[in-house]
Amino acid sequence: MVLQAIKYSRGQLQILDQLKLPHSEEYDHIYSSTDAWHAIKEMRTRGAPAIAIVAALALAVELVNMKLSPIAEEVKVFILEKLDYLVTSRPTAVNLADAARKLKSTAEEAANKEGSDGEDVREAYVAAAQKMLVDDVSDNENIGRHGADWIVKNTEAGKKGQVSMLTHCNTGSLATAGYGTALGVIRSLHSSGALKHAFCSETRPYNQGSRLTAFELVHDQIPATLITDSMAAALLQLKGSSENIAGIVVGADRVAANGDTANKIGTYSLAILAKHHGVKFLVAAPRTTIDLETKSGKEIVIEERPGKEVTLIKGPRHDGVTLDLGVVETVSIAANGIAVWNPAFDVTPAELIDGIITEVGVVEKDSDGVFHLDGLFKADGVRDAPSTVGGI
Ligand code: MRU
């Protein structure tokens, strides 16, 4: 069965509550943009593409179920205000702001059309939001294909036949409309028989790796092993040994114009480790995650989350032998009174990144070590672009 984090049909939206995973699969109904704002803020839904799609669809559901004004301008203003509100839920991932910008111009264009009414504006909005859901899945499948091809062609282990990869956080079906970005690359390697083994890091403090990525890997029966974040260096020392670790592949919340990439906290340290051990470090993201308006990583706002996400851990009771799903407990794992710093993301400098895998190909740096990401947006025919842009 395919994992589905977002269930949508016209007028109805449900999200898989990711705070309850991996032990319990429960869906929450989302009826409005306010419901979506809270679901995003509380991390019941998360991952840059998923956040954008849930926000877009929640407003579509609200518009379909509400008593609609017949006046196009009024419906447009309602949509614009709700989109501005949704964007305030989490600051770092650019996909939500990008989706809001595109949906706003859809609503504006529809409202400006001669003779349009409220229903026309709503229908234009709903169609555009639904298209985002469909496009994200096909974009992810293409990211998976391009990334897997690149890894097989550009790594020693790949040329010999099979690779092992390390990934961080959760970038799979749970973080997107389906298939995933970095985890999509691992899925693609697996389905073509090129994956030897996947490693996923726990991803403290929110444990997206141990709770969500591990859940997806087990679900898809991909050979995989969980490590804590502090074990990554030791794992990479195995490169060239029987494990054939070819590289690290991660997702992104915002890629700046120069290639600096904001992603889950801990990504930057993995990039440094990759450099030291001479393994590839790849970022996998749809073009909606690339923000040419942000010139470098210095401009990216990093979300800081409550300290209790570091000092407390929540989960079902385990007595050492049996898991009791009926009793969910919160356990303190830090000294009372300690100050806590909890940035949700960090920025990996472009110099540490070997390639950015998108739905239209893998971008490498030119001979001066510079990414030219604007080339990804130039022509419509870009979907047919060669799988390697620039670089080698
Ligand atoms: O705080 P989260 O769980 O929303 O962070 C998610 C990540 O950092 C992902 O790597 C990123 O959003 C890409 S998901 C395809």
UniProtKB/TrEMBL annotation:
The active site is at D253 (proton donor). Keywords: Amino-acid biosynthesis, Cytoplasm, Isomerase, Methionine biosynthesis, Nucleus. It is found in: Cytoplasm; Nucleus. It catalyses: 5-(methylsulfanyl)-alpha-D-ribose 1-phosphate = 5-(methylsulfanyl)-D-ribulose 1-phosphate. Pathway: Amino-acid biosynthesis; L-methionine biosynthesis via salvage pathway; L-methionine from S-methyl-5-thio-alpha-D-ribose 1-phosphate: step 1/6. It is an enzyme of class 5 (isomerase). It comes from the Eukaryota. Its main location: cytoplasm. GO terms for cellular component: cytoplasm; nucleus. Pfam families: IF-2B. SUPFAM superfamilies: NagB/RpiA/CoA transferase-like. The record marks C169 as: Transition state stabilizer. Its EC number is 5.3.1.23. GO terms for biological process: L-methionine salvage from methylthioadenosine. GO terms for molecular function: S-methyl-5-thioribose-1-phosphate isomerase activity. Belongs to the eIF-2B alpha/beta/delta subunits family. MtnA subfamily. Catalyzes the interconversion of methylthioribose-1-phosphate (MTR-1-P) into methylthioribulose-1-phosphate (MTRu-1-P). HAMAP family: Salvage_MtnA (MF_01678). This is Methylthioribose-1-phosphate isomerase. It comes from Melanomma pulvis-pyrius CBS 109.77. The lineage of its organism: Eukaryota, Fungi, Dikarya, Ascomycota, Pezizomycotina. The gene is MRI1.
